Amino acid sequence: xxxxxxxxxxxxxxxxxxxxxxxxxxxxxxxxxxxxxxxxxxxxxxxxxxxxxxxxxxxxxxxxxxxxxxxxxxxxxxxxxxxxxxxxxxxxxxxxxxxxxxxxxxxxxxxxxxxxxxxxxxxxxxxxxxxxxxxxxxxxxxxxxxxxxxxxxxxxxxxxxxxxxxxxxxxxxxxxxxxxxxxxxxxxxxxxxxxxxxxxxxxxxxxxxxxxxxxxxxxxxxxxxxxxxxxxxxxxxxxxxxxxxxxxxxxxxxxxxxxxxxxxxxxxxxxxxxxxxxxxxxxxxxxxxxxxxxxxxxxxxxxxxxxxxxxxxxxxxxxxxxxxxxxxxxxxxxxxxxxxxxxxxxxxxxxxxxxxxxxxxxxxxxxxxxxxxxxxxxxxxxxxxxxxxxxxxxxxxxxxxxxxxxxxxxxxxxxxxxxxxxxxxxxxxxxxxxxxxxxxxxxxxxxxxxxxxxxxxxxxxxxxxxxxxxxxxxxxxxxxxxxxxxxxxxxxxxxxxxxxxxxxxxxxxxxxxxxxxxxxxxxxxxxxxxxxxxxxxxxxxxxxxxxxxxxxxxxxxxxxxxxxxxxxxxxxxxxxxxxxxxxxxxxxxxxxxxxxxxxxxxxxxxxxxxxxxxxxxxxxxxxxxxxxxxxxxxxxxxxxxxxx
Amino acid sequence: xxxxxxxxxxxxxxxxxxxxxxxxxxxxxxxxxxxxxxxxxxxxxxxxxxxxxxxxxxxxxxxxxxxxxxxxxxxxxxxxxxxxxxxxxxxxxxxxxxxxxxxxxxxxxxxxxxxxxxxxxxxxxxxxxxxxxxxxxxxxxxxxxxxxxxxxxxxxxxxxxxxxxxxxxxxxxxxxxxxxxxxxxxxxxxxxxxxxxxxxxxxxxxxxxxxxxxxxxxxxxxxxxxxxxxxxxxxxxxxxxxxxxxxxxxxxxxxxxxxxxxxxxxxxxxxxxxxxxxxxxxxxxxxxxxxxxxxxxxxxxxxxxxxxxxxxxxxxxxxxxxxxxxxxxxxxxxxxxxxxxxxxxxxxxxxxxxxxxxxxxxxxxxxxxxxxxxxxxxxxxxxxxxxxxxxxxxxxxxxxxxxxxxxxxxxxxxxxxxxxxxxxxxxxxxxxxxxxxxxxxxxxxxxxxxxxxxxxxxxxxxxxxxxxxxxxxxxxxxxxxxxxxxxxxxxxxxxxxxxxxxxxxxxxxxxxxxxxxxxxxxxxxxxxxxxxxxxxxxxxxxxxxxxxxxxxxxxxxxxxxxxxxxxxxxxxxxxxxxxxxxxxx
Lengths: 644, 585
Known about the structure:
The complex is a heterodimer of chains A (644) and B (585). Chain A has helices at 14-17, 24-36, 40-74, 80-129, 132-136, 140-182, 184-231, 233-238, 242-294, 299-302, 304-308, 313-362, 444-451, 474-479, 495-500, 508-517, 521-526, 544-557, 574-587, 600-603, 623-629, 632-637; strands at residues 374-377, 385-390, 396-400, 405-412, 421-428, 433-438, 459-464, 467-468, 481-484, 493-494, 534-535, 562-566, 592-596, 608-613, 616-621. Chain A is of the alpha/beta class and 644 residues long. A six-stranded mixed beta sheet of chain A has the order 9-12-13-6-14-15, with helices on both faces. A four-stranded antiparallel beta sheet of chain A has the order 5-4-7-8, covered by helices on one side. Chain A is elongated, with a radius of gyration of 37 Å. Chain B has 585 residues and is α/β, with parallel strands linked by helices. In chain B, β4 (398-403) and β5 (406-407) form a beta hairpin. The longest helix of chain B has 53 residues, at 219-271. Chains A and B meet through α3, α4, α6, α7 and α8 of A and α2, α3, α4, α5 and α7 of B.
């Protein structure tokens, strides 16, 4: 395993590093495209319904003033039919509004949930294509929170904020139009306070967004801490380290609390401040209007209408007062959407930060797919495996798969400046069993990581049956190699499922046969439900050795022409190992096997043994030859040399 | 369940009580301000109607001042309330997480096996966040909304009692709708959270096993697995939210109906067709109140929405909080472990009561203090299970295990485990430096003591070659050192405890034979009184032990020295011979 990213500091200076989305507008546009372009029709419907709903809201309110004006104007002689017709109109408008609101809420919910689902699927599909370096440099906790915490921030944005934004904008424009028609002077007063509201929103929203990001980061850090410590919970128990674990958790937890309190404090502040600024606006508008009235200002100053209608002094005041009443009502209506938008501010900032993290992951360059040569089975005369090489003229050349692997002058390092393999050349002939021994840092596992192109070499070539592995399609290259890795990992599912993972079309019988060959059958049949026993949490209910046996069975069922065993039997007792070896020999007749082990009994009867030291092959040959050489292998064998 | 959660409010109780009060003040101001507005509007309307010739500046000035005063009061109480609400809700979440984690630390091995890491992470983060949101909503809105409601009703009564009845009726209808939605939605959310766990575990599994996935080219299979998981989350989220989308429009609908009734009745009252006096300006106020009352109800609905969402989460949190360890500390615990002698008396062990196969059967064994014991056996023969009983990581199903002549169940757990050091097979190092990791064994260890332990574990040599030496950073899970180096660090960590019993569970499998032998030699030399139990695959690792136990399918097949077993025990002889031939020795 290559070095994973170091996680030693669970979120030190969060506030300083917490920052908003780098390119908010770009991210926002992309998010909109991502969410709505797939659902063009539904989106159009949402826009129409939102439009209808907000128009309904505004016009319904205007009916109220028509009714009250009529009542005031004619007192008890009011034209009731006019009143009723207006009420009926209002009812119709309301009905349209309610239906529209229900419709867009429902459609939006489907769009939002669909988008979240697609987002998770897309992220996962992308993740599967990423090169191993990506996983080496990101912690699990952090990647996991992309799927939960970050995706969740999007839900509020899509289901609530966006429809709210559309409807608020519409309402705002409509109200603004009415206001301009009534009075430009008073509108100026409104705009002055509005500027204050915008500033307040920007300031408070900005602070709150900043601390929200710190909060998300702290949450991620807590996530990471719990993940690492829970994985090692049994060690904590054995060392009675509970108090220490608690203390460290408290620290991470406190930091989250600090950031969270401030972030939420600012967010909650937005409501009272903007709300009361709204009241101030109302008072100011009223005062301004009354002052204009009282000091006999030009009629046109208060209202365009009053200017047009040239009325007498008494009537003039009455008209002006009437206009002011209407304008005050619009002021109230104007404040509503402004409030709503400002309250969504922090949600938008948070969602954009989440979206940016998600897109960043989706944009990571995937592992290249490799060359054009593919693996076929049964297409050549002898019905075996073959490489299919497309030729320029459209025909194909078939090269039988033998398992001949050669390294020519290979240089490799996980980081370019730190070379791990220095000018390695080696060859494995078909049907041979090649073993690598050497200290753990010597580069044994690295060699297998290069054969299946988990990592790419810096110079030199690796050929497979004479073909440069770069020319082979990566998935086909890997399909031809059965690898049992040093770290055994099993999946949630039955024992049978886990064995079948090696070859999905394998029958139950084939799986059981493989288990028998791997000597796993006897312990499996002792499990509560035999082959149908559910494995959970990476096979936590099995012993280390049993997990390795399953991993070997999984590789055996795959029927790959080449098998690589990387310390595959380290936790298995030697007696069982011997039995597995016999099974393996039967299975691998004529195929190539690479074995990595530190236990010399495991490698002894290999055709060739390579002794690796500090990235170089220092000795090669079979057991007898190497013993005769009396070199490092001999020293190892006699226990005179430390194998580490 | 809610009571259980609220226990964690603790020091934030005061804030949690003050917040609703402040919210109530703010809410009252929000009622008063529109009421004051009616004076301004009324004054203007009188002018518009020609009742008055001039606007009474005094009235306007007084009302405006009052309005601004009220706005200031609302602002202050709102702002302080906001800060306190944030403090209280975040603090509550903080305490919940702490309580959960604290309880998690009391879990026994059997408890730990019940929870996957992914599930614990979701519980401590996502679930707590959900509960936090609900709590925040509850303290801010649940008081405020009813006050808005009651005050509006009172105001309405002042204007016209009949209208108040209409409002009350409307609120009742809404209450029923909301309650119905809640009732329907909770089970869906509960299922959704389970699906969420699945999704999380698919992601986690793929992260840890990405090499397996890639080696077998199973990306497509995993993607389709994920699609099932995200599809399930989608299905249940949609089912739940579909019900919730009905809520808001129905609130709107009710509001609209109320408005129409008010207008119809109001205008009829005004013209005298109906009893009751009402002014057109009051009509407008009433419509404003209706918006306010129903937005109050809407807020309660939204609160309940959050609470519904958090119910599933709350249940999952309580599960962790209420999980009691399967290994409780005895009441009059023995605080001192006498010596390192160990006895097994008729021990039988199975991991769960349901398991029909016992992992260990009929184990009888006596080990003297200071002895070196080897354990050999095939994969799955019960070696790890056997030694796990000594530091009481699990309890026996039958029979007793004694350490220092006293049943392990009578010891104080911490004391027992401090005396019995176990180097686990699946061992873990943590992020941090080497010396930080080694200090797990003894936090007060001096640098010399650490070096000494490392020397005994044959680790000092390679540590000296690392950049930074004892300050070398190990990375998560100790990924920056090799397997064999990791094992030796784990041994050094255990040695620092200066235990009475030390257990190596296949702890030198990646260490070469020579170093392995040196470590054992050091153990004999520096810890002569410590009982040493060594599980190994290699005969060489146990050959020189005072006694070797051969385990076979959960039973003791033989006990004796190497020479005795080679003579008398078929299994042991076979293993020995296979390794001799294998060239290990």
